[in-house]
């Protein structure tokens, strides 16, 4: 999996035969500059295949031992858990700098950033008194036809998996059925939900914390805000993006170097500033637009991120409900 290449860095040319193949469920617009920086710092050429996290996870499962991938960089912990059997155990001490809440108990993958599920809402049509205290409140009549969701989105599916783990399959099914009965409107992803609120199509949406910042950054008067539910509600789920080294890869050293780079202060600061996400290690300047991580830990439900790997069960639940 290596080809002779030459990388030009300023005035210097570095010859190398090193490559690493990355399957990325993270968007190219955000992570491509970071991968280029990895190449510049290490002299390793990254061969990247982009797609949704679910697409990449399915591809890895289909390819099995024949996969050319060395690293899987996923958008959510659900996919990481589902694929943990295909990951190599990382060296002892590899995750020592990662905050304990973000670690994989089996040391098969590392979190690269944290994110929170939030409720986005119109600043023009929603009063503070109209904000629900629980995500289950959204099945009430007062919210009928006013709520957006994205059932095909990987982070939403990780949330549903966590809902199942925390409160049981029947409770998760009852909520999904209640949302359908309450005419929740389906959108493609997080961003289209936010845009639908701004356009007056809906008043509420269920997204990850970092999307709204991109719109507000471009327009300080953007008519959408975000909030959390009451403390401990499953709607405040703390999720992660993360990466694992493929066990059958014959390129373990370079794969580990890439994952290690994602934990470096440089990469962590980039993801925090450019991605509006939470760093997974100490010493990183926080995003001033986000609630402190400590606050997030206090209001998030107590769900072990290592326990949300049953993606197949969630896909069946959503499929049976007619959402996939």
TrEMBL record:
Keywords: Iron, Metal-binding, Signal
Coiled-coil ranges (or none): none
Transmembrane segments: none
A GO MF term: metal ion binding
A Pfam family of this chain: SBP_bac_8
Annotated Gene Ontology cellular component terms: outer membrane-bounded periplasmic space
Binding site for Fe cation: 210-211
PANTHER family the UniProt entry points to: IRON-UTILIZATION PERIPLASMIC PROTEIN (PTHR30006:SF15), THIAMINE-BINDING PERIPLASMIC PROTEIN-RELATED (PTHR30006)
Sequence similarity: Belongs to the bacterial solute-binding protein 1 family.
Name of the protein: Iron ABC transporter substrate-binding protein
Organism annotation: Paracoccus caeni
């Amino acid at each position: 999996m290596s080809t002779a290449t030459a990388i030009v860095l300023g005035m210097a040319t570095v010859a190398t035969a090193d490559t690493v193949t990355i399957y990325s469920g993270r968007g190219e617009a955000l992570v491509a500059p970071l991968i280029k920086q990895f190449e510049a710092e290490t002299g390793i050429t990254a061969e990247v295949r982009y797609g949704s996290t679910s697409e990449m996870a399915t591809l890895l499962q289909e390819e099995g031992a024949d996969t050319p991938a060395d690293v899987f960089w996923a958008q959510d912990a659900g996919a990481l858990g589902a694929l943990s059997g295909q990951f190599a155990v990382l060296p002892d001490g590899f995750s020592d700098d990662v905050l304990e809440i973000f670690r994989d108990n089996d040391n098969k993958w590392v979190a690269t950033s944290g994110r929170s599920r939030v409720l986005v809402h119109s600043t023009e049509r929603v009063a503070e008194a109209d904000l629900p205290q629980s995500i289950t409140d959204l099945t009430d009549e007062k919210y009928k036809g006013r709520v957006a969701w994205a059932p095909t989105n990987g982070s939403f599916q990780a949330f549903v998996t966590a809902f199942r783990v925390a409160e049981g399959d029947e409770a998760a099914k009852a909520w999904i059925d209640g949302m359908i009965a309450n005419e929740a409107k389906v959108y493609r992803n997080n961003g289209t939900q936010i845009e639908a609120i701004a356009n007056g199509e809906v008043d509420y949406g269920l997204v990850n914390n970092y999307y709204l910042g991109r719109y507000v950054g471009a327009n300080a008067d953007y008519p959408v805000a975000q909030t959390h539910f009451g403390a401990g509600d499953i709607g405040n789920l703390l999720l992660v993006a993360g990466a694992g080294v493929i066990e059958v890869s014959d390129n373990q050293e370079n794969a580990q170097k890439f994952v290690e780079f994602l934990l470096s202060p440089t990469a962590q600061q980039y993801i925090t500033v450019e991605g509006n996400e939470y760093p997974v290690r100490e010493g990183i300047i926080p995003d001033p637009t986000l609630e402190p991580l400590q606050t997030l830990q206090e209001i998030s439900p107590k769900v072990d991120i290592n326990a949300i790997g049953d993606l197949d069960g969630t896909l069946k639940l959503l499929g049976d409900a007619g959402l996939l």
